[in-house]
């Protein structure tokens, strides 16, 4: 492979791409991928598996739009290398509904009008599902604090908190 | 991001062997800072060695009554660990003051120690930066320097260390355990990070072929009188303008022992043992706290946009020591500062 423009400019020898096999259990289905080492989990989901529910926002771990659950824990998929998650179970927004019924938090987002443009919503919902599973938030202050890694530029925060509260079964 | 090779390490010896064999290799664990820096072309490693399979994931009591934290324990697990909550709540509080829930789930204890500065110029490869490119100059000194250092800076670099966890570890007298080709050694937390001097490219005293294996806490955890008070531009999910880890051991109203460390003000967690010594034996109150703040900030120097941090730090020190003395630690969810 010819060296990239960047490689020529900085005068470094840069390795040619190598492809590495990775197994992911995505939304309960085993998927076998072959990816370059620098492929993020976000890119693996969107570009290799056509699961475009997970969104690329800032691509730097600052906005939370790319949030998915890896082995049940919420993470920023844009900062996760797919090769490092070989064998892991990944849940995206596409995997939350069960038997045709929305996840309670998805339903709560509709009931509480917790989005406008919707771009951050899949990340908000995956993050909220992770938050509920962690069980550390009991007050609105705690929900707000533990959702601070998800930015909503439409400013739907009060309704997002209300939706999470509803899914937690709190009044 | 440039192309890179990917390798896995099986154990600590294997990791050390692999890093020693390739000077352009870097370890990766959580990746929250490294992958970001690679995307920005600030880090240009051509080999990443995945250490996440190493057996460094436990939190265990030590023989001398302290606690050993494996380098791969995620920040979130550590923050909520029952032994941390019970014995070292200052550390738990500092961890929860940092980053977001997602990042804390990913980030490791060892990686948090090795976070790099968020100086805008360090991140911007179009501008000179002595830390990123030694000898190229510091863009911050005469640039936009609102977030920069007021203590311990040099003409080469005025960047600050971004970690909250490290501020608490410095206050708690933690020790960093590392392994290299020559074997294992321990480094006092306060000696782990460096001041910039003329070599700002070196953040820490960890050698290029060494790996962090654990952090050890001594027995004394100051679980009764402590606080981690972080002041920032947003209520949450922002780096500190000034943060203070304060811990007191009180005998009635008299200070038997004090710990005081600052974040957001220097190239390393800023602990001042002279200020701590001045607090010892004094009545816990505003006079003693203000005197300690004066000692910490005696040599503070502001730049065009960050001189406000000197006054801010003085007030945050006094408030933090007051919170610690009153056993009313700062809540990291209800952000009202009381």
What's the count of strands of chain B?
12
User: Beta-strand percentage of chain A?
Assistant: 5-15%
Percent of residues of chain A in helical segments? 25-40%
Q: Quick one: biggest sheet of chain A?
A: 5 strands, mixed
What gross morphology of chain B would you assign? globular
What shape does the CA trace of chain A take?
Answer: globular
CATH superfamily of the largest domain in chain A: Beta-grasp domain
CATH superfamily of the domain at 225-325 in chain B: CO dehydrogenase flavoprotein, C-terminal domain
Low-confidence stretches of chain A: 1-7
Question: Which topology of the largest domain in chain A does CATH recognise?
Answer: Ubiquitin-like (UB roll)
Helicity range of chain B: 25-40%
What is the subunit arrangement here? heterodimer
Task: Note the beta-strand portion of chain B.
Answer: 15-25%
By helix and strand content of chain B, what is the structural category?
A: alpha+beta
Largest interface: A-B, 45 and 37 residues
SS-derived structural category of chain A: alpha+beta
Can you summarize the main beta sheet of chain B? 5 strands, antiparallel
């Amino acid at each position: 492979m010819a060296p990239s423009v960047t490689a020529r400019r900085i005068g470094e020898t840069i390795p040619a791409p190598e492809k590495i096999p990775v197994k992911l259990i995505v939304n309960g289905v085993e998927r076998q991928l072959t990816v370059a080492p620098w492929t993020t989990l976000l890119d693996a989901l969107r570009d290799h598996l056509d699961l475009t529910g997970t969104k690329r926002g800032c691509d730097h771990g600052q906005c939370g739009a790319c949030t998915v659950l890896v082995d049940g824990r919420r993470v920023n998929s844009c900062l996760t290398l797919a090769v490092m998650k070989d064998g892991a179970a990944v849940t995206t927004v596409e995997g939350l509904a069960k038997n045709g019924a929305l996840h309670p938090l998805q339903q709560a987002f509709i009931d509480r009008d917790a989005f406008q443009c919707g771009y951050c919503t899949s990340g908000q919902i995956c993050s909220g599902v992770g938050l509920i599973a962690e069980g550390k938030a009991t007050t609105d202050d705690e929900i707000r604090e533990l959702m601070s890694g998800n930015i909503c530029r439409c400013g739907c925060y009060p309704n997002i908190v209300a939706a999470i509260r509803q899914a937690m079964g709190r009044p | 991001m440039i192309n890179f090779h990917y390798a896995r390490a099986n154990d600590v010896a294997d990791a050390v062997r692999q890093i020693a064999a390739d000077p352009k290799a870097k370890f990766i664990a959580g990746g929250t800072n490294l992958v970001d820096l690679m995307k920005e072309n600030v880090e240009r490693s051509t080999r990443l060695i995945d250490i996440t399979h190493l057996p460094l994931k436990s939190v265990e009591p030590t023989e001398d009554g302290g606690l050993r934290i494996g380098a791969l324990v995620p920040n979130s697990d550590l923050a909520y660990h029952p032994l941390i909550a019970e014995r070292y709540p200052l550390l738990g509080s500092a961890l929860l003051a940092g980053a977001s829930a997602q990042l804390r789930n990913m980030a490791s204890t060892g990686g948090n120690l090795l976070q790099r500065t968020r100086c805008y110029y360090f991140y911007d490869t179009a501008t000179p930066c002595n830390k990123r490119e030694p000898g190229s100059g510091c863009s911050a000194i005469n640039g936009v320097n609102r977030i920069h250092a007021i203590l311990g800076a040099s003409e080469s670099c005025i960047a600050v260390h971004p970690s909250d966890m490290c501020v608490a570890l410095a206050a708690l007298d933690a020790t960093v355990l590392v392994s290299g080709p020559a074997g294992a050694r321990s480094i006092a937390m306060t000696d782990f990070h460096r001041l910039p001097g003329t070599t700002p490219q070196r953040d820490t005293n960890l050698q290029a072929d060494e790996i962090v294996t654990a952090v050890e806490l001594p027995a004394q955890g100051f679980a009764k009188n402590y606080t981690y008070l972080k002041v920032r531009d947003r209520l949450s999910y922002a780096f500190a303008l000034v943060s203070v880890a304060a811990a007191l051991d009180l005998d009635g109203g008299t200070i038997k022992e004090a710990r005081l460390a600052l974040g957001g003000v220097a190239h390393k967690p800023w602990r001042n043992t002279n200020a701590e010594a001045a607090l010892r034996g004094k009545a816990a109150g505003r006079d003693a706290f203000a005197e300690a703040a004066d000692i910490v900030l005696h040599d503070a120097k502001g730049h065009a946009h960050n001189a406000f941090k000197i006054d801010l730090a003085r007030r945050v020190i006094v408030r933090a020591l007051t919170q610690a003395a009153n056993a009313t630690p700062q809540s990291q969810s209800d952000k009202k500062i009381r």
